[in-house]
Design goal:
Elements lengths: L1 H18 L4 H11 L1 H8 L6 E6 L2 H17 L4 E6 L2 H7 L7 E4 L5 H11 L3 E5 L5 H9 L3 E7 L13 H6 L5 E4 L2 H9 L5 E3 L4 H8 L7 H7 L3 E8 L1 H13 L5 E7 L4 H10 L4 E3 L13 E3 L6 H5 L4 E4 L12 H4 L5 E3 L7 H8 L3 E3 L3 H12 L2 H18 L2 H10 L1
Parallel strand pairs: 1-2, 1-4, 2-3, 4-5, 5-6, 6-7, 8-9, 8-12, 9-11, 10-11, 12-13, 13-14
Helix pairs in contact: 4-10, 6-7
Length: about 400
């Protein structure tokens, strides 16, 4: 199987170059990787210890961030290397201040893996949540690099736990220790012979808790809200926006304000969204030209401020719940004690399932259910407070994963 995997990687690499001619995201994926080895060659020095973190994308980065920043604070002279697999992570965090080098992880060929690990020669390698690349892991093991998995999550359907997955199970021997999110992941690893496992929890809880300590003031949001009940809809996709547009246009009271922060901030998509709303609507990019409190809907056509905006929400709608990938990060509003509404696709996310059971998060699958729920919240501060308290308490109970991992590293 390992032999066929390497053939597959070569084939995938070839076809991605062709697809990149037509697909902007794949083009970023290919072109970004061309610069990886040159960037490493010009940035690495022989007299600095390298600590390497790898994240698939932006979500995994947020999980790894508390550990990254703590390690960099304790080891300011180290060279901290951060790699991404996906453009959606790299493009947003390529200038991340706590990393000395940020680049793409090369495609997992035997040649690339050997070259990458020998060039970087990390003292410590940390993988966040998943991303199990057999050639990279083999190279780490061959070079005796201490390798950890943090905020790991395992599911029975993964190849490690299938009859044909022996070659993938073997790749896990590269990890000195697994820090996993739940008991189920620990039991699965135990079942295939790995006992070097600690249930530490999810570092995202620590990350979102840190957000509450920062300055979350946004004066323009305060001007827009003007003391009114406010729904903040974050990371919305087309399917989410269709429901929200319908509610705003047909059901919304004049006393309700709406802030929509789309997942896609393409100019045409933003204009289309704005034109479909019949209530008075303003874009973030137009905010300095008007009196914001006169508007009922604010569309945020920029990135990087959603977490701060959630702190102003009466209710949060978190998008992505109608897509195959599933709902986006519900912990960001939860940590501010905000009740959450989502679409139906959330089965992959333990924290969402927990919050739904607690009645701190509410799943809807059509306009009628959304409308009924929003009207209930609008007319009941008690319901908002009760659900919001449950959301906040849940996050607080789950913090502490970062401390467990750092204590292990200090031994």
């Amino acid at each position: 199987m390992y032999f066929f995997y390497n053939i597959l990687i070569a084939i995938v690499g070839f076809f991605l170059k062709i697809i990149a001619l037509l697909n902007k995201k794949i083009n970023l994926f290919i072109e970004g990787r061309k610069a990886t080895f040159l960037k490493l060659e010009t940035s690495l020095t022989n007299n600095s210890e390298v600590i390497w973190f790898h994240c698939a994308s932006l979500g995994e980065f947020e999980q790894g961030r508390p550990i990254i920043e703590a390690i960099k604070k304790e080891n300011p002279n180290c060279t901290l290397l951060l790699t991404f697999f996906s453009p959606s992570g790299y493009e947003i965090r390529k200038n991340y201040e706590s990393a000395d080098i940020v680049c793409y992880l090369p495609l997992d060929s035997k040649r690339n893996a050997k070259k990458f690990i020998e060039m970087v020669n990390p003292a410590l390698a940390v993988f966040v949540k998943y991303e199990f690349w057999p050639n990279i892991l083999r190279a780490l093991k061959n070079n005796q690099v201490e390798t950890l998995l943090i905020s790991g999550i395992f599911r029975k359907k993964q190849p490690f736990f299938k009859w044909y997955g022996g070659w993938m199970r073997k790749s896990l021997t590269a990890f000195k220790h697994f820090f996993v999110q739940d008991e189920n992941s620990k039991e699965l690893l135990n079942s295939i012979g790995y006992s070097n496992v600690t249930v530490s929890g999810d570092t995202r809880f620590d990350r979102v808790f840190e957000i509450t300590k920062q300055n979350n003031k946004l004066p323009f949001i305060e001007d827009f809200i003007d003391g009114n009940y406010t729904l903040v809809a974050g990371s919305t996709w087309k399917e989410d926006e269709e429901l929200l547009i319908n509610y705003i246009n047909t059901k919304a009271s004049k006393l309700e304000k709406f802030i929509i922060v789309p997942h896609n901030i393409d100019k045409k998509a933003i204009e289309k969204l704005k034109n479909e709303l019949t209530k008075k609507t303003i874009l973030f990019s137009e905010k300095d030209k008007v009196s914001l409190k006169e508007y009922q809907v604010l569309i945020v056509d920029t990135v990087g401020i959603l977490t701060k905006i959630y702190s102003y929400a009466s209710i949060a709608y978190v998008g992505g719940g109608f897509t195959k990938t599933g709902v986006h990060n519900v912990l960001e509003p939860a940590v501010f004690g905000v009740p959450i509404i989502i679409g139906p696709q959330f089965s992959k996310f333990n924290e969402v399932k927990d919050l739904v059971k607690l009645e701190a998060c509410f799943s809807i699958n059509n306009f009628k259910k959304l409308s009924v729920l929003l009207e209930k919240f609008f007319h009941s501060n008690t319901l908002i407070e009760k659900a919001g308290t449950k959301a906040y308490d849940y996050v607080m109970e789950k913090t502490g994963a970062t401390t467990k991992i750092l204590n292990y590293l200090k031994k």
